[in-house]
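hey so i finally got around to running the thing on that chain from the lab meeting. sorry it took forever, my laptop kept dying and i had to restart like 3 times. anyway pasting the input first so we r on the same page abt which one it is
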Amino acid sequence: MMFKKLPIATLLAVLTFTGLGLSTSTAFSQNLDQYLNGEMKNVTLKKEREEIADISFKDGDGNTRQISEFKGKVLLVNFWATWCAPCREEMPSLDNLQAELGSDDFTVLAVGQDLQGVEKTKKFLKALKLENLAAFNDKTVKSGRKLGVFGLPATLIIDREGREVGRLVGPAEWDSEEAIELLKAVIEG
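ok and heres what got predicted. didnt touch it at all, straight out
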């Protein structure tokens, strides 16, 4: 074996930096704690990332969608409702974030939890002139509960492998400099 005569520390460094080590190694993932400033100070990062449940919701055309369809992208999954005042306040910042970072690498999934369904979500987005967010809704509210969301707004950051990076319960300015820096670190990580 080619590693046989290497000192243990060297062997561990080689394994870690070549990707042959443990998948939970922090050598590949940036230390995200440094990005928990300003608007992001209340984000709770996961110590160990675990794959999230494959939730379903309706899109603007009434089709059932699965979160697994977005695997390969970093996601900001926001659970909200039209009747929730803090949710309504943060929606423009989510729209701005999607306009700035939305790409093949990143998507904001704002999943409404309105019991009236996706039509209510579509009307709300139109009324607020939010043009960058797609209309998604889960009138059963099972999607949020399945991911451990019991208050609104709640936002989960999901990595490309479909694992939760962290979450924030409560509103935030998602188009703030701090939020964009944090999300770019996850995208690049």
